[in-house]
Write a structure and sequence with these properties.
It is built from seven helices and 27 strands. Helix content is 17%, strand content 29%. It has two domains: 105 residues, no CATH class; 306 residues, no CATH class. The strands form seven sheets. Strands 12, 13, 14, 15, 16, 17, 25, 26 and 27 form a nine-stranded mixed sheet that branches. Strands 4, 5, 6, 7, 8 and 11 form a six-stranded mixed sheet that branches. The chain starts with a helix and ends with a strand.
Length: 448
């Protein structure tokens, strides 16, 4: 009898161990199969808090749009969230909106669902018995990264400058080219000559793509409000001096700690920076601020060149004809916002001006008129590239402008004839409406 009793105990003990192992493997299997649903939350209960685990979401329903523009939705296989190609419909009360229920009653209050990288995250779930049902539409947008793939890169034999840091650019260009170069962040792809497929629409504003930056962001220059414009005053936002003062070398700076413009909100700003900040704050900040890239910056290369009264952009553009997309001494000359990790991080807003180097790559030169490239507007407008400082009677600081003939000229910063064409950078993941082709009549249109 004693031996029989011991065997029974051993049997019971073994059975318990087996059941525990089965339970553990079962939990592991279930958790692995539900890995796409990152939904662990804390639920308030009378006695404290408990974890709301993946098992509570075993009844999720996932519906996918059957075709673009269709009102029909089909159940996803095994209720799996799609890896890509779809966008989650927000929580709402419509028949095809995503929604949650609490004990069978629709209730979206306080709940947020985030869909990214092929997985969903639930936030704000505080009650047991919550079930969420997700509806996904087929994407009708393309990203900035996809946009780059729409263009074919031309070769040097077709007219592009060599792929190097500072290639020789000695002549104007009127052919439509898409070329490859180098900037501080990697490979950059830029438009040269007279392309007709680099138009972008943001709200009611029209822009031309200057280039795709090395970090994937998209650099744009202003070109019209209400309609796409290639020439005349509608290509600019305002006629204004670069700086109200011009008799000191510091006035070529876009912003400088040693400046003291007492009439401005920030006395360290140049006159033109304050105007650009105000324009951005009024027209772009609230609606489009989230898609702006401030980390790539704007180059105000004020390093001394071949002589004490010349700046490096003058040497590159006028003397050597070897422009570059790289910014000399980024810590002081590359103006970025504080959320970046490169440059001086001094910008209030992510807005600036084109550089003379960029205009040179686009098809202009210092000495030759060119009305056949896309930056020609028949107007004088500022770049942010310092040119020279004349130190003597009538001393003056000068920066480059794109002249009304399409060539470059140095211009005293106190001059009021040149105009302002804002330049911005869109993040690489900015979304654009499907179906645009970049022409002025069918531009790539930003979706918010």
């Amino acid at each position: 009898m004693k031996i029989e009793k011991l065997s029974k105990r051993k049997y019971i003990k073994t059975s318990i161990i087996v059941l525990v192992l089965i339970s553990i493997f079962g939990v592991i299997f279930i958790n692995k199969s539900k890995a796409k649903y990152r939904v662990t939350q804390s639920i308030q209960v009378v006695s404290g808090e408990v974890n709301y685990t993946n098992l509570d979401f075993s009844m999720l329903g996932v519906k996918l749009q059957s075709a673009k523009g269709s009102s029909d939705y089909v159940s996803a296989s095994n209720n799996e969230v799609p890896e890509s190609g779809y966008k989650l419909k927000p929580l709402g009360d419509g028949t095809t909106d995503s929604y949650c229920t609490i004990n069978g009653t629709k209730n979206n209050t306080g709940i947020t669902i985030i869909y990214e990288n092929g997985s969903v995250t639930f936030k704000g779930i505080k009650k047991q018995g919550t079930r969420c049902y997700l509806f996904f539409d087929l994407k009708t947008e393309i990203s900035g990264s996809d946009l780059l793939g729409e263009y074919t890169v031309n070769s040097t034999s077709e007219g592009c400058p060599n792929y190097e840091d500072a290639p020789s650019v000695t002549s104007t260009e009127t052919k439509a080219l898409f070329c490859k170069g180098k900037d501080d962040f990697g490979d950059t792809y830029y438009f040269r000559g007279n392309p007709t497929n680099n138009w972008v629409k943001i709200g009611n504003f029209y822009w031309r793509i200057i280039r795709f930056n090395g970090n994937g962001s998209i650099r744009l220059i202003y070109s019209g409000n209400g309609s796409p414009t290639t020439s005349g005053t509608d290509t600019q936002t305002k006629i204004l001096a670069y700086n109200n003062s011009y008799d000191n070398v510091k006035y070529v700076k876009y912003m400088d700690d040693n400046m003291s413009n007492s009439t401005l909100k920030n006395p360290k700003n140049s006159t033109i920076k304050q105007e650009l900040d105000d324009w951005y704050e009024t027209n772009l900040k609230s609606t489009y601020g989230g898609i702006m890239d401030g980390a790539v910056g704007f180059c105000n290369d004020a390093d001394t060149g071949s002589s004490t009264n010349l700046f490096k952009p003058y040497d590159r553009i006028e003397k050597n004809k070897k422009p570059t997309f790289k910014c000399g001494t980024p810590k002081t000359n590359l103006f970025t916002t504080e959320d970046g990790t490169y440059g001086n991080q001094k910008l209030t807003y992510p807005v600036g001006l084109i550089t003379a180097d960029e205009a040179s790559f686009a098809g202009g030169t210092y000495s030759d008129a060119n009305s056949g490239y896309y930056l020609y507007t028949g107007q004088n407008y500022w770049t942010m590239s310092p040119s020279n400082f004349y130190d003597g009677y009538g001393s003056r600081a000068s920066v480059f402008v794109v002249y009304y003939t399409g060539k470059f000229s140095d211009y005293a910063v106190g001059g009021v004839a040149p105009s302002i064409r804002p330049v911005i950078n869109l993040k690489a993941d900015t979304q654009f409406k499907e179906g645009g082709n970049g022409t002025s009549t069918n531009p790539y249109e930003v979706v918010i």
